[in-house]
């Protein structure tokens, strides 16, 4: 990009007028070494504290090859929007989920208030499956959670774009604390662990290997983000219900999403 | 943009076709189906926040080092700085006290239209000031 000569001259003049502290600006070492999260998803079914902000919107779809105890597949479409500044103030993410792709009548809402703390750490308070129609809903109902996410600063590779380790730990109500009625009738107990967590290791550039505990079961997956101009595309695939703590066997889940800055 | 949307539609179609979700029947069930919601909304890149943050910042170091680079930085208004470094990193630099935004003097501020005419710079937003780095990391 060519800078017009008058603009450069004005900028140079302006640089002498701006207080500089008497010496050339240097980027501090801690900032150069700061590890922030990469662009891939950090979890499949558990929240992280990283959220949408700064006027960005996303549209995505997710699907499960099989529902627990049922042979039928299930899918969702979610449209969301992020606003605010999580670094200087608070980021706010709101979303609408359509969880009946055939009828489009099972709609719920979600939100996440998130704030960046320091050193690759962020905290969020959120809710999901809100205002869903209990008569037709197949989810766990209103769910609220508090989660802290962190990028481990002391682990990683010298190669850029590989080796970052992302962790999140949280507590929640709803689906994190209760198993389904079917789980209960199958003798798997009533309560989840309330505590959930996820671990995402950057195994290649923009590719994360994910392991997580949802409060009721163990999941694993891969998430890859493809940068296409200013509109990233994220594709993920995973295996849910790896243990017998809930459900009736391993399920395949997948998702794709795209975002745009408005 | 058209290519991106095409890629997204293909990826979505493949996933839906592969899983059979398009034929999925909704059930008022007692199974508490956990959706892969976070797969849809949980990627920071999807949120538009962190796409290439580290690499982007590294390539932008010239904006923050050396006297000529300072001048270069001073040519950017807040919007341009955020576009260059990303919203998240820009806010992080502000929080760390490395840069601050201040409005240009009235005789410097000009409209974008004036800039298009080549007569005055397009300082229509707040202008970053480079501050000395002091204190601990945020």
Shape of chain B: elongated
- Beta-strand content bin of chain A: 35-45%
Note the run of SSEs of chain B as H and E. HHHHHHEHE
Uncertain stretches of chain B: 22-29, 44-63, 65-73, 110-125, 132-136
> CATH homologous superfamily name of chain A?
monomeric porin ompg
Order of helices and strands of chain A: HHEEEEEEEHEEEEE
Secondary structure: number of strands of chain A: 12
Produce a short descriptive summary.
Chain A is mainly beta.
Any chance you could write out the topology, listing elements then pairs?
The complex is a heterodimer of chains A (262) and B (138).
Chain A: H1 5-17, H2 29-33, E1 56-64, E2 74-84, E3 91-98, E4 107-118, E5 121-130, E6 143-151, E7 165-172, H3 181-185, E8 195-204, E9 207-213, E10 218-228, E11 231-240, E12 251-261
Antiparallel strand pairs in A: 1-2, 1-12, 2-3, 3-4, 4-5, 5-6, 6-7, 7-8, 8-9, 9-10, 10-11, 11-12
Chain B: H1 2-19, H2 37-41, H3 53-59, H4 67-74, H5 78-85, H6 87-95, E1 99-102, H7 112-116, E2 127-130
Antiparallel strand pairs in B: 1-2
Task: Please describe what this structure looks like.
The complex is a heterodimer of chains A (262) and B (138). With 262 residues, chain A is mainly β. Chain A has a single domain, classed as Beta Barrel (Porin), CATH 2.40.160.40. Helices cover 9% and strands 44% of the residues of chain A. Chain A is built from 3 helices and 12 strands; from the N terminus they run ααβββββββαβββββ. Chain A has helices at residues 5-17, 29-33, 181-185, and strands at residues 56-64, 74-84, 91-98, 107-118, 121-130, 143-151, 165-172, 195-204, 207-213, 218-228, 231-240, 251-261. A 12-stranded antiparallel barrel of chain A has the order 1-2-3-4-5-6-7-8-9-10-11-12. By secondary structure, chain B is mainly alpha-helical. Chain B has 2 domains: 2-41, no CATH class; 53-130, no CATH class. Chain B contains 7 helices and 2 strands, in the order ααααααβαβ. A two-stranded antiparallel ribbon of chain B has the order 1-2. In chain B, α5 (78-85) crosses α6. The longest helix of chain B has 18 residues, at 2-19. Chain B is elongated. The two termini of chain B are 37 Å apart. Mean pLDDT of chain B is 55; it is low at 22-29, 44-63, 65-73, 110-125 and 132-136. At the A-B interface, α1, α2, β1, β2 and β3 of A face α1, α2, α3, α4 and α6 of B.
């Amino acid at each position: 990009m060519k800078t017009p000569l008058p603009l450069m001259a004005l900028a140079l003049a302006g640089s002498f007028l701006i207080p500089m502290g008497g010496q050339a600006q240097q980027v501090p070492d801690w900032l150069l070494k700061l590890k922030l999260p990469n662009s891939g998803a950090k979890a499949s079914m558990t929240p992280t504290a990283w959220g949408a902000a700064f006027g960005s919107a996303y549209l995505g779809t997710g699907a499960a090859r099989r529902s627990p105890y049922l042979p039928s597949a299930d899918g969702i479409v979610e449209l969301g929007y992020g606003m605010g500044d999580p670094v200087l103030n608070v980021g706010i993410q709101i979303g609408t989920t359509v969880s009946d792709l055939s009828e489009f009548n099972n709609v719920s809402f979600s939100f996440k208030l998130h704030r960046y703390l320091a050193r690759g750490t962020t905290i969020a308070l959120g809710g999901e499956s809100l205002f869903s129609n209990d008569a037709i809903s197949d989810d766990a109902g209103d769910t609220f959670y508090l989660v802290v996410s962190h990028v481990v600063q002391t682990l990683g590779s010298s190669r850029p774009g590989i080796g970052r380790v992302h962790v999140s730990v949280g507590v929640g109500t709803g689906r994190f604390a209760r198993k389904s009625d079917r789980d209960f009738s199958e003798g798997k107990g009533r309560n989840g662990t309330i505590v959930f967590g996820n671990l995402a290791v950057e195994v290649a550039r923009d590719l994360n290997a994910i392991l997580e505990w949802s409060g009721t079961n163990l999941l694993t997956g891969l998430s890859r983000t493809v940068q296409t101009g200013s509109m990233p595309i994220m594709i993920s695939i995973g295996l849910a219900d790896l243990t017998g703590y809930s459900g009736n066997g391993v399920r395949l889940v997948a998702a794709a999403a795209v975002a745009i800055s408005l | 943009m058209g290519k991106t949307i095409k890629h997204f539609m293909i990826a979505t179609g493949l996933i839906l076709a592969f899983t059979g979700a398009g034929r999925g029947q909704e059930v008022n069930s007692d199974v508490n189906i956990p959706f892969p919601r976070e797969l849809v909304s949980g990627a920071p890149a999807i949120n538009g926040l962190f796409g290439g943050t580290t690499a982007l910042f590294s390539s932008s170091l010239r904006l923050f080092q050396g006297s000529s680079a300072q001048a270069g930085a001073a040519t950017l208004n807040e919007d341009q700085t955020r576009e260059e470094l990303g919203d998240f990193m820009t806010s992080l630099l502000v929080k760390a006290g490395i840069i601050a935004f201040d409005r240009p003097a009235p005789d410097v501020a000009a409209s974008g239209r004036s800039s298009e005419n080549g007569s005055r710079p397009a300082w229509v937003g707040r202008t970053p000031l480079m501050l000395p780095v002091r204190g601990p990391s945020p």
